[in-house]
Amino acid sequence: MRNAILIAILLVPLSYAQEPEITYRSTAVTDGIYVLEGVGGFGGGNVGLLVGEQHIVMIDDTMAPTAPALLAVADAAAGRSIDFVINTHVHGDHLGGNALLADTGAVIVAHDNIRKRLLADPSPAGGAAGLPVITFADGMTFHVNDYEAHVAHVERAHTDGDAIIHFKNANVIHTGDLMFNGMFPFIDLDRGGTVDGYIAGAKKIYGIADDDTRIIAGHGPLATKADLGVFIEMLVDARARVQALVLAGKSEDQIVAENPLASYHDEWNWYFITTERMTRTLVRSLSTD
Fold this sequence. Notes:
Layout: H1 2-17, E1 23-30, E2 33-39, E3 47-51, E4 56-59, H2 67-78, E5 84-86, H3 92-95, H4 98-103, E6 107-111, H5 112-120, E7 134-136, E8 139-144, E9 147-154, E10 162-167, E11 172-174, H6 195-208, E12 214-216, H7 225-247, H8 252-258, H9 265-268, H10 275-288
Parallel strand pairs: 4-5, 5-6, 6-7, 11-12
Antiparallel strand pairs: 1-2, 2-3, 3-4, 8-9, 9-10, 10-11
Helix pairs in contact: 6-7, 7-10, 8-10
């Protein structure tokens, strides 16, 4: 099961990406900041785009097969090529376009652990040309286009190299995959993620948001602080339900059979992170953390 989940997160997006009808739409979040979303199939994670006279900054760059379509939409919105790309984590549905963007002159920025993982296997980034050339440990700040964009590392959450981006004076946050709006999240335990760290990261975002904050989730529609609160409440309750069964000494299969997340199935289950997979992730993480 663990290997099946790992393979799926890397291969399922690529199979979807090969559908020729996938395009991207650009939606203004606020003045100068856009979200680019796949249309017509799975188009990877939501991409952020900061457009201004000084610099163009992209947050994530989807998958290698669909990156040309993404870049065409981004260039149309920006009016010129991308200057910087910030990777939020190491998965190929978020940084698969790195190599293509680097070839067009973009500077790739990411957490230290992302570069370390890509040095071992650069394929998620479209090849060795997609390796980050600027890395950070705890965080960094971009001062561009009169915006202050703070990039903050979140430890052992979705992976071990996660970053969130807070456009402070624009009141916009890009969460990377620390939020799946309306869906069970993927928590990649094989790449350093943990359930406790994921919840702590989501709570960190909640703490810096206010009622007017526009939140670009890694997957799903644009969100509000209230949406993030519902997401956190689900995770905290799901963790508590599974933790009780783990402490009772039940095995992973026994816990799955009891279906402790049944009440969340209709709303949060989806084709990749099903209710069963979410349950197994919780069991595995809570049994080892």
